[in-house]
């Protein structure tokens, strides 16, 4: 660092702890990536609002900057600008969205500075974890595992052969019903939605349950017969999320082969779009006729 | 028609940061003006300013600002404030306490906020400087809302949870008088029960010195003699900053909650000279029109006015123009006239609200503020009864005049409460 850069750095961090400045100098002089968490901590502590009682130094990496540490969006901007100056880097707008927790922020800065592709957070779910999260339960659960990356999810389901519907569909030639393939895809989308939608705790008006309803399928196509022993991959990609509707693009594959596709798989959440009597009976999980038309309340805006 | 009363005041001014101090300064013509160190450092002919005591702004970073402990705010509040909005926050706190307003009343949808400030040229400069020297993406994220003229209603509205009308006014030196007039109209038309009318201004190089080059500022260094509105030797105004808040309230609303009443805001009038961007019409016809309209709006004969708090800033042209306006309306027997700017300095956007507040104090405390520093009354001002020495008069009806660039004129009529 030149003298000028050093004095700018001191100016930038003059209201943060001395440890913050020391770490920043280590970073700028030696490229020491291990200093990043200390710098982030010092900057967050400086900007922490008086209304927040959390000790940031004791907070775990998964502590959320807004919900747990009490920062507001303007303060986050200040934090980002200060970090940009101290670390001598630029964080583009589209990357800001993914920096919800202290751990993510640290990892992001580390990846970014070391020139790595910034890794999006990846979460894995086994069947036990899925059972805890989804409202659908065995024997009507068609999801064995799932991987969530950002807002996109890939699930798997292996057709066991003992599913009760196979007894009649068909007596001598069991075929996993197309309707249930779409149901499996819907369950994958449901998990993605529950795991990525805005936290209801931060919104006092949000319903406190996990209810998600199948609201429609547009552009659904079915290409292959599914039989016991087949392992289905269920891919859903978020297209649009605005309460009360989430829209996913969906695809079901078996190995290299495409089994089914959906251009728009719509889920309703938050406020029930269905008549209360039906909703109470759990009829919501029934699959509506394929290609039902649904008036998208977000389409006009 | 609904009537409007002033039920609370808040004052952060060069002559005092509390009502009692301000009254004492007005009664004794104690000046709030002093040599301003920032001017000495700036190598300019201007020396004096109406400094705001107990507030210091050594750097543009709010962490370095010094201000009274009772008004301390956390950083997430301070980061969007400028000196003018911090003064105004303090004055609002006083006004709310003075009027005895509950939180429910302050945050009622029937309570509004009319503000006037030139914004903070200083922080705007700092922000632009950052933009040009360090890059667009390095701009202070609060750089707009801490400096634009609207920053006053933006910040006060949020700080106090205002739910009714909120507007910022920008008509140069008559801005806060316009804010008061708008507040009166809102209450009379039953759109609001209560409105805070706020004027505020920074007090620093950036808010004051741009007036030097147009030769509007006094270059003397003796605050006991300058500025001297109406005096033959006057050479311009002295700048000041601060904030003044008037709580304007529908009279029945005020009566029912047993609110203190300083005065009735009986009427107001406005006009434009349509003459020149800077200079007032020398004939004073525009201001005379505003005064006449204000009296008519208040439903009173001009002859019943006892006291005029003149806009008179101490510039050679402006004071004479105003005297002609007064003479046109009142003839040879004018009300008593004084300019309190001799001891406060000229507060620009703040002036109208500060001086309307002074009129409230004069009506309630039953005194007429003198026009300080007049040793030789300018003959051109002589037809007007300038109060150069204390008089034993309890005014009942007072007028506060404001005149801004572009010939923007406002006249406010205040009347002592009927029951005293």
In short:
The complex is a heterodimer of chains A (301) and B (420). With 301 residues, chain A is an alpha+beta fold.
Chain-averaged pLDDT of chain B: 96
How far is the N terminus from the C terminus of chain A? Answer: 50 Å
Count helical runs of chain A.
9
Q: How many DSSP-defined strands of chain A? A: 7
Order of helices and strands of chain A: HHHHHHEHEEHEEEEH
Average residue pLDDT of chain A: 83
Helical element count of chain B? 14
Radius of gyration of chain B using CA atoms only = 20 Å
Order of helices and strands of chain B: EHEHEHHHEHHEHEHEEHEHEHEHHEEE
Q: Mind summarizing the main beta sheet of chain A?
A: 7 strands, antiparallel
| Low-confidence residue ranges of chain A | 275-301
SS-derived structural category of chain B: alpha/beta
The fraction of residues in strands of chain B falls at: 15-25%
Helix content of chain B: 25-40%
Side by side, the strands of the main sheet of chain B go 5-4-6-8-1-9-14-13-10-11-12
Oligomer: heterodimer
Inertia-based shape of chain B: globular
Radius of gyration of chain A: 24 Å
Q: Let me know the number of strands of chain B.
A: 14
